[in-house]
Amino acid sequence: MKQNITLSLDKAIIKKAKVLAAKKDISVTKLLSEQLARIVSEDNQYESSKRRALAYLKKGFHLGGRILATREELHERK
Predict the structure, then answer these.
(1) Torsion angles phi and psi, residue 47, rounded to 5
(2) Are the C-beta atoms of 19 and 11 separated by less than 8 Å?
(3) Of residues 26, 29, 4, the one with CA closest to residue 14
(4) What is the pLDDT of residues 31-62, one digit of tens each?
(5) Distances (CA, A) of 21 to 3, 24, 27, 60
């Protein structure tokens, strides 16, 4: 479902957007729509990656080593 929105932009920005859209042979609406969709998609990907990275950190990593001494043995005072 599509819905219209109203934007208030500086005239210089609008003029440059029209030129850019014309170079791409698309409308300003299509230009803004594509860019906004890209921004939202990138944010969704970032949040997904962030959640995945935090889950990995919470789980921890096994690097193949073995514990050869207890904590007490390692910190034994002489």
Answers:
(1) -65, -40
(2) no
(3) 29
(4) 999 999 999 999 999 999 999 999 999 998 88
(5) 21, 5, 6, 48
pLDDT band at 78 (very low <50, low <70, confident <90, very high): low
**CA triplet 14, 34, 37: central angle to 5 degrees?**
120
**Cβ 28 vs Cβ 17: under 8 Å:** yes
- The rounded distance, in Å, linking the Cα atoms of 56 and 63 is 13
- Residue 33 neighbours by CB distance under 10 Å: 13
What is the model's pTM? 0.66
35-73 b/e with 16+ CB inside 10 Å = b?
eeeeeeeeeeeeeeeeeeeeeeeeeeeeeeeeeeeeeee
The answer to whether 20 and 31 are in contact (CB under 8 A) is: yes
